Amino acid sequence: MPPLIILTYKNATLILMKPLLKLTHWCLDLIFPKYCLGCGLEGSYLCPACFSSIPVCLSTNCFICGRRSPSGLACDNCRHKERSSLNGIMVAADWKNLLLRQIIYEYKYRFVKELSIPLSQLMISFLQTDMLLNCPPDKLILVPVPLHGRRFAWRGFNQAELLAQKISAHFDIPLAKNILVRSRHTLPQRTAKTQVARAANIKNAFTLSKNHSSLSSLRAPQKRDDVKSRARKAQWATGLYWGDHIALREAIPRNTTQNLNSLKNKTVILVDDICTTGLTFEDCARALKSLSPKEIWGLVIARG
Ligand SMILES: [Zn+2]
Ligand SMILES: [Zn+2]
What we know:
The protein is an alpha/beta fold. It has one domain. It has eleven helices and ten strands.
């Protein structure tokens, strides 16, 4: 028996809007064609060949002293010396890669939201090779670094949240996007010249949200294996890119509101686009400590 569809105002609007949006995107693509940031090929901001030329980090270092360390864990020496609330910072790719820098720039400052797809894919590929994810997904929680309201109004989206949403959908890890708030407007960390100025700029910028019980997870739908999708997979040898593109665009929110008054036995992964000194993560971790998580990690695309 075919499923019964009850037509409401909400789903009727969605049904009508989808083709209209597709048509608008098609017209915009026609007027303003997209060119690959790497090679100039027309069709997208990043062609599969250029995307696959960006290597994912395979060696990880202590985020304080830079010595080799699994997953970016703070080494024993640093853990004794520094009183860090972070267990480590995971860095997905290398900031020295000029194409990657350009993609991050276009994403953050020219508001090309769709670049969140290849950027999050780099983080997903990194996590797939990393042992932290041996941990069951329900023991992990993704927390995007929040933006101050003023910055959010300027950019129109939180770049860290878009990345975290896609990682959540891929691994089925719960996402707590309203657990932290940026209660103080700060200057971008890169504008502060010294370590002391950076520390002062970000100190106590984050607090726990008054209503920190909003936990959601995004479920990537089953990948279609019809003729069209098989043809697409064959066309794009790097299948990963466009295959996931489709799955992520159609990610379905899962209602899993629960009380987050405690994060006991949970490993928090703070998500941001880039980090420099790690002080932003440190301040987020300081705010989250009162919820007693088991571990707190940072995850970024690159460390600039
Ligand atoms: Zn290209
Ligand atoms: Zn160290």
